[in-house]
């Protein structure tokens, strides 16, 4: 995945950051969400929400949560990776006023405002918090900066036992802006959409910590697998515990679902992924399952065509497919007992709307009527037309499995639905 963190905002030309990543709400909810931020802030102060890790599913769960669990739904829920970001004019205007990405992603009011921008504009079925996979690093001993051209910069990479001494258990008090933002988002969208949190997988986070920032070769960390495996394993184990705690923290703050981004897992040969990424993701899944047994977990890897069966072995509920994997082939390889997410090529959003419609319908048909979350195979690209994003969600809302899958065949009618 060509981005510094895997999931959501188009932050600057030199790097991309993450922020997770359609059912229309009642008119009263729309009015509340479209009110001024000042009015919204006053109302938020009066609201209370109590969320704990649920041990059972509910008929009132959002559509996306039901699909993630493989429960029957009437249509595919839809959201997009990099759902909030520079393709939206309203985001660009806000970014001019607040040019620092760290400020935008670490200030509660700004996080909430940005996270709600696509919700107010397009009504996706998932509202992902505007954040970054590197956000929790300072909370366990790894400070970082973000530079306009270079992107994330870690001044003291960890490549030795001495470097490990700077690490400590994650201090969740330092991440209260994340918790407060999730609570507010849960209040704002009500039951009309799922609130999504996300984290980076240990291997992906470790690449930044070892390499000192973004890299195109991964030579330092790949060499470390052989030259200092005990140091790398100690780092990965520490990250595993911190990320597990961070997931539970997000769920208890209000996240319905958590996506794990192993953005750079696809840079490993499959046998190395088995050794250096999969066991740590498995450990996270096991740890979170004990505390939040009904919270769906999604795993996304960019370039995952050679890893699908291995990804299934991590125990997650949903596997995100990038657009290089044919959805029908992915379904065949993974089986029907696990849900899938994706996987429209983001470039289709630059195509004529009838072509975009045709591709959406092809993907939905290939995925089948159960356990599918409609998404892109990667994040929204810079300069994507907002009209196309709106159309994507309108098509998703227009579908009904009972009629769509019965009346259309792979060669008939796939271009007939143009909103």
From TrEMBL:
Alphabetized GO MF terms: uroporphyrinogen decarboxylase activity
InterPro entries: UROD/MetE-like_sf, Uroporphyrinogen_deCO2ase_HemE, Uroporphyrinogen_deCOase
Chain positions covered by the region annotation Disordered: 35-69
Gene3D superfamilies registered for this protein in UniProt: 3.20.20.210
Enzyme class, UniProt record, top EC level: lyase
SUPFAM superfamilies (UniProt xref): UROD/MetE-like
Keyword entries, A-Z: Chlorophyll biosynthesis, Decarboxylase, Lyase, Porphyrin biosynthesis
Chain ranges of the Uroporphyrinogen decarboxylase (URO-D) domain: 77-86, 196-212
Localization, UniProt: Plastid, Chloroplast
Family annotation (Pfam families): URO-D
CDD domains noted in UniProt: URO-D
Catalyses which reaction(s): uroporphyrinogen III + 4 H(+) = coproporphyrinogen III + 4 CO2
Family per similarity comment: Belongs to the uroporphyrinogen decarboxylase family.
Protein name per UniProt: Uroporphyrinogen decarboxylase
Organism listed in the record: Prunus dulcis (Almond)
